[in-house]
């Protein structure tokens, strides 16, 4: 399996939930290998802490990671493998259980670029939304707008109120499925998300995993409004005319 495909789920988690590069920091810590011996955990204890953290904080409801095989020690860290759906991913945690690296990439096993099959580039539109080739999905004749997220994901709690405010502008024109901490519409989530949250799916035509924090709240609201306007035929007019430049 292409390593890039194998890593899709955890990459989505890292981007969507705002994990800092290098590791998830639980508290004040020392560099790996420098932990106080009094604070060291067994490999089993530390791996369980890492697995529990991933399940409780990084994965949406309905998706659970499980341990594969026995954890071990490697390069001053504890190494353990998790399974999410059909994917198996290596993770690492410091011996005191304070710093978690949700995925470790084995550089020696990476396929060289000349051997990789070229990937098909997705068409992207404003706000870094992907454009699907699917027909617009409707409910009672209205485009369906899906939001998937969890209160345990900081970027979800940033994106969610923006999405709600935008959706309120289209009350009579869309069907809003507000899936915050629910297991509803998991078939849609499974089709358009790599497993990361927040995931936004607009009419099954535009979708994105991750929050639009780089745009700021105002910029993100304009992008969401413009994409919904494209699905509603620029209705309501008083709302859509304010983002006409983005619609075009």
Record the SSE blueprint.
Elements: H1 3-6, H2 8-16, E1 24-25, H3 43-58, E2 65-74, E3 77-84, E4 87-93, E5 99-101, E6 124-125, E7 129-131, E8 138-139, E9 142-149, H4 154-168, E10 175-180, H5 186-192, E11 199-202, E12 206-209, H6 216-232, H7 237-240, H8 244-247
Parallel strand pairs: 9-10
Antiparallel strand pairs: 1-5, 2-3, 3-4, 4-5, 6-7, 7-12, 8-9, 9-11, 11-12
Plain-language structure description:
The strands form 2 sheets. Strands 6, 7, 8, 9, 10, 11 and 12 form a 7-stranded mixed β-sheet that branches. A 5-stranded antiparallel β-sheet has the order 1-5-4-3-2, covered by helices on one side. It is built from 8 helices and 12 strands. It folds into 2 domains: 3-109, no CATH class; 124-247, Glutaredoxin (3-Layer(aba) Sandwich). By secondary structure, it is an alpha+beta fold. Helix 4 crosses helix 6 (216-232). Helix content is 31%, strand content 24%. Mean pLDDT is 80; it is low at 1-34 and 109-120.
List keywords for this structure.
12 strands; 8 helices; Glutaredoxin; 5-stranded antiparallel sheet; 248 residues; 31% helix; alpha+beta
What is Rg? 20 Å
CATH level-four homologous superfamily name of the largest domain: Glutaredoxin
CATH architecture of the largest domain: 3-Layer(aba) Sandwich
Largest β-sheet summary:
7 strands, mixed
Categorize the overall geometry: elongated
**What is the third-level CATH name, the topology of the largest domain?**
Glutaredoxin
Number of helices: 8
């Amino acid at each position: 399996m292409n390593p890039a495909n194998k890593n899709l789920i955890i990459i989505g988690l890292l981007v969507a939930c705002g994990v800092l590069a290098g590791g998830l920091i639980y508290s004040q810590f020392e560099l790996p290998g420098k932990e106080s011996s009094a604070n060291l955990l067994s490999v089993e204890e530390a791996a369980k802490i890492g697995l529990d953290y991933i399940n409780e904080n990084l994965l949406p409801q309905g998706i659970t990671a499980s341990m594969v095989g026995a954890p071990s020690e490697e390069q001053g860290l504890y190494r353990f493998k998790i399974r999410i759906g059909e994917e198996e991913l290596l993770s690492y945690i410091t011996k005191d259980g304070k710093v978690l690296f949700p995925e470790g990439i084995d550089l020696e096993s990476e396929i060289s670029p000349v051997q990789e099959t070229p990937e098909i580039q997705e068409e992207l539109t404003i706000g870094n939304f992907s454009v699907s080739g699917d027909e617009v999905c409707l409910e009672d004749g209205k485009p369906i707008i899906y939001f998937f997220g969890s209160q345990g994901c900081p970027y979800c709690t940033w994106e969610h109120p923006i999405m709600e405010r935008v959706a309120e502008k289209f009350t009579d024109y869309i069907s809003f499925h507000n899936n915050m901490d629910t297991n509803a519409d998991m078939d849609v989530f499974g089709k358009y998300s790599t497993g990361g949250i927040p995931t936004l799916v607009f009419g099954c035509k535009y979708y994105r995993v991750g929050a639009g924090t780089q745009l700021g709240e105002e910029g993100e609201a304009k992008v969401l409004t413009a994409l919904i306007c494209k699905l509603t035929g620029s209705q309501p007019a008083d709302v859509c005319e304010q983002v006409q430049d983005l619609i075009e």
